[in-house]
Amino acid sequence: MEPSAIHGRDVVGNMVAPSIPYSTLMGFIWSGTCLSLVTILLRLAFRIKLLRRLRLDDYLVIASFVFYLGSTILWAVLARTLYVVAQGWNTTPTDPAAIVELFNNAGTLLHAILATYWLTWTSLWLVKIAFMVFFYPLGRHAPLQRYLWWTVLVCIVAAYCVTVGLTTDDCLTASGLDIAQKCIGEAKFNRQYFTSRVHLATDISTDLLSQFHVPPFCQTVN
């Protein structure tokens, strides 16, 4: 989840007041996690009943949920700080100690947000790889299908590297004071907007790539 979706930003990227109540945010985050858990448990129960064992793609899905759960827990821990920082940013404290504390809290918050990005993207890409692993045995006797499978897999992994690499930004890794000095303004907001569009493009393109990869496999099986 993008932090700007919670607290909002103005036209130059400055933080504005939170637009989503804390209780609503927590309910949304934990509802999604619980729904994911139920879905995965049903999947595992079905696979065990049908195959009497779990396969590699099942373990990848489990790993994906662990990363997703980690992201949820981290959001639950940092959410209060998010609202405190957003409120402090809008009231602009005059006490020097309060200003330093605000900058430190903002730095800690953005470092934690970076961690949630990594956890979330890793969780999502593990699901994509699990999907690929599920179809891998279907091309066992078709060498061309193997080449296609590996090509798609390499593209998915490369897209993951691009996605994670773009989130490693000075505005998420620097100190709170450096972030306040260098990361507020239209240029930084435009870069964040561009990064979010690239994230969306890599996510959709890898999904489509893996979907286009399925019909040839099905034709091979038939």
From TrEMBL:
<keyword id="KW-1133">Transmembrane helix</keyword>
<dbReference type="InterPro" id="IPR052337">
    <property type="entry name" value="SAT4-like"/>
</dbReference>
<feature type="transmembrane region" description="Helical">
    <location>
        <begin position="109"/>
        <end position="135"/>
    </location>
</feature>
<dbReference type="InterPro" id="IPR049326">
    <property type="entry name" value="Rhodopsin_dom_fungi"/>
</dbReference>
<comment type="similarity">
    <text>Belongs to the SAT4 family.</text>
</comment>
<feature type="transmembrane region" description="Helical">
    <location>
        <begin position="147"/>
        <end position="166"/>
    </location>
</feature>
<dbReference type="GO" id="GO:0016020">
    <property type="term" value="C:membrane"/>
</dbReference>
<feature type="domain" description="Rhodopsin">
    <location>
        <begin position="42"/>
        <end position="204"/>
    </location>
</feature>
<protein>
    <submittedName>
        <fullName>Podospora anserina S mat+ genomic DNA chromosome 1, supercontig 1</fullName>
    </submittedName>
</protein>
<feature type="transmembrane region" description="Helical">
    <location>
        <begin position="20"/>
        <end position="46"/>
    </location>
</feature>
<keyword id="KW-0472">Membrane</keyword>
<dbReference type="Pfam" id="PF20684">
    <property type="entry name" value="Fung_rhodopsin"/>
</dbReference>
<keyword id="KW-0812">Transmembrane</keyword>
<feature type="transmembrane region" description="Helical">
    <location>
        <begin position="58"/>
        <end position="78"/>
    </location>
</feature>
